[in-house]
Amino acid sequence: MTNSSYSRRTALRAAAAGAAASGLTLAGGGAAARAGGRRGTTTFVVVTGASGTPGGIDALSLRGHRTVGVPLPGHRATDAQFAVDYQCPQDAASLATRPSPMAGVGLDAYTAAAVDVVRTVAGFGPVVLYGGSMGGATLNRVGNAVPHLVDRMVYDTAFCCVDLSCPEEYLATPEGSTSLGGDLADLIVADPAVVGAVRINYRTADRAALAKLKEVMMAGADDAEFHGLLACLQPDESPTVGREDCRVRADTWGRVPRTYIRHTADRMIPLALQDRMIAEADRLTPRNRFDVHTVDAPHAANAAQFGRIVDILDALPECRR
Questions:
Q1: Number of CB atoms found within 10 A of residue 247's CB
Q2: What are the φ/ψ torsions at residue 70 (nearest 5 degrees)?
Q3: Which residues form the signal peptide (predicted)?
């Protein structure tokens, strides 16, 4: 089997790793809250992007907020993503054939897990649903399902599907054509039809492959931070999430206040594509437009850049109580 058998589209889908998993240590009723100012500590519910490890955001906890990560099915510690064949020395034959814990997992399962966490924390105070990259697909679905439980959604260079149905379709637009995600096809080490997942070797020792990964995901970062990011990424991702329908609805999702954090140097979700999704959403609900912020960062922010993102999150209206 050769890497040429994998499509550029598959690589784009698999490579959209979450900005929330940027190498940092990751550790109620929306309508009522917006109308009456519900008291209590704000809870940030964090949805990771593709290949990310679920967790909260320590820097927000240090500022007095509650944060919790959504345990996405297939990505939990008990799901054995980091199998022995992925360690050094790697077992290429096993990596190419071992069934994945992601097999059969799709956006319905991700959404159910996120809704469960939102329901659990909604009684304690305002809920801010935060997601990066492919995590936006889950945010869209949760906003459609339980808008009354979410006080704000934050898209951190994440997919917000409005006119088109899924992330794959957006990456195929002129605005998405400059994405470098498809360049990572050489890192796919198994046929998704065999293992039930898109499996990428983020622990490769190939220097050329590492340089390509860094250019796509974290250009400009020092090697220590970049290698720390790779160590946190899980090799397997659902082969279907990127092509499942996650269009937002004006009557549900459109009722929730929303923030978009643009990354100017993103080479995975190009800035033009971020702006297209923002514009589509604002046209859908012109009386509830995105609150837009911009950081000078690649797809996965380094520590200093993520500090700016934390500042943005800490200043949200839901945190000023």
A1: 17
A2: -85, 125
A3: 1-27
Residue 228 CA to its chain's centroid (Å): 17
**Do residues 201 and 284 touch, judged by C-beta distance below 8 A?**
no
∠ CA 105-118-52, nearest 5°, is: 45
Task: Check whether 15 has a pLDDT greater than 80.
Answer: no
320 within domain boundaries: no
Containing domain of residue 91, as a range? 3-314
Q: How far apart are CA 149 and CA 119, in angstroms?
A: 7
CA dist list (Å): 38 to 71, 115, 151, 209, 293: 26, 20, 10, 49, 25
Domains in the chain: how many in total? 1
Q: Any idea what DSSP says for residue 175?
A: G
Q: What is the dihedral of CA 150, 298, 8, 2, to 10 degrees?
A: -120
Answer whether residue 43 shows pLDDT above 50.
yes
Q: Once rounded to an integer, what is the mean pLDDT over residues 274-301?
A: 98
Instruction: Please check the confidence at residue 84 and state whether its pLDDT lies above 60.
Output: yes
The domain that holds 260 is classified in CATH as 3.40.50.1820
Out of 37-41, 215-219, 260-264, 271-275, pick the least confident. Answer: 37-41
Rounded Cα gap, residues 239 and 11, in angstroms = 10
98 falls within a domain: yes
Q: Across the strands, what pairs with 43?
A: 66, 127
Q: Is 223 helix (H, G, I), strand (E, B) or coil?
A: helix
User: Residue 37 has what DSSP assignment?
Assistant: -
Q: Which residues contact 91 (CB under 8 A, 6 or more apart)?
A: 84, 85
Q: Is residue 278 part of a domain?
A: yes
Residue 2 has pLDDT above 70, yes or no: no
Mean pLDDT of 228-238: 94
Confidence of residue 321 (pLDDT cuts 50, 70, 90): low
Check residue 42 and give left, alpha or beta (phi > 0: left; psi -120 to 50: alpha). beta
Beta bridge partners of 66: 43
Residue 187 placed within a domain: yes
Contact 196, 104 (CB under 8 A): yes
Q: What is the pLDDT of residue 80?
A: 87
